[in-house]
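Example record for the data management plan.
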Amino acid sequence: MLRVPRLLAPVLCSLFLVAACGDGEAPTGDAPAGDAEQTAAGPAPVRLYIFDCGTLEIADVGRFSLMPDEASTNELSVPCYLVEHREGRLLWDAGLPDEWAARSPFTQENGTVTTVERTLAAQLEELRLTPADIDYLAMSHMHYDHSGNANMFAGSEWLVQRPEHEAAFGGAGGFVDQSLFGDLETAETRLLDGDHDVFGDGSVVIKSAPGHTPGHQVLFVNLVDPGPVVLSGDLYHFPENRQLKRVPLFNFDEQQTLDSMDLIEDFMSEMGARMWIQHDSAAYALLRKSPEFYE
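Corresponding structural encoding:
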């Protein structure tokens, strides 16, 4: 079922005035997300929390069109993100399954060493939140390391590109496990046919970027500090994929991927945004993790 768009309350700043409306550097801290709207100064336009949703140690970087001496590491971080806005909460990507924590680390058949040290549910609880507090769920795509806990959020509105939805329930091959997201088939769903402004004020925008999968997407978040960012999904896996413009062998469509790379790079230049490559373990290690946040 498709949701009728909610009426949006007026916001203090448009996309181009968010930075100007800040009073110096944005504060950071570890205040629980559930208390965000109770602060004396009122809610921040956007607040971004980063969760640890696992790691993958890749046996063969050749699958990513990289030579062993070209990749700085074979480890991929697996983050999830919570975006808080005065109009609701959005979870971006659902990580590796919480259930895998009990047997971590373990080695998959393809040689990938998989680790889940902290569950997503526990990290939400640390912020005094439950899955029922999440208004919107959006995943970059449906591969297992991005949809592992999707069923937990079947009560949220699912924001998904139409081709990804069709592929997810129509037999898309490669890393797709319907048991991880099957409950979403009957969830409240907004099918997207391109870009989508989540809260209607330009602060959080889903950008269509197909190629890795039929309906792959990335997320633009207009933060004050460190500034606008794009959460990459799997547009790139390793920083070397971006530097060398290499497309993994297992991508759905190589040319679509290359076109999406160009489109998103042009968008970032236009918006003055930086890219956070979600699987870039070295860059991820330097970021503040929940309960700390960016805004």
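Summary line stored alongside the record: The chain has one domain: 42-285.
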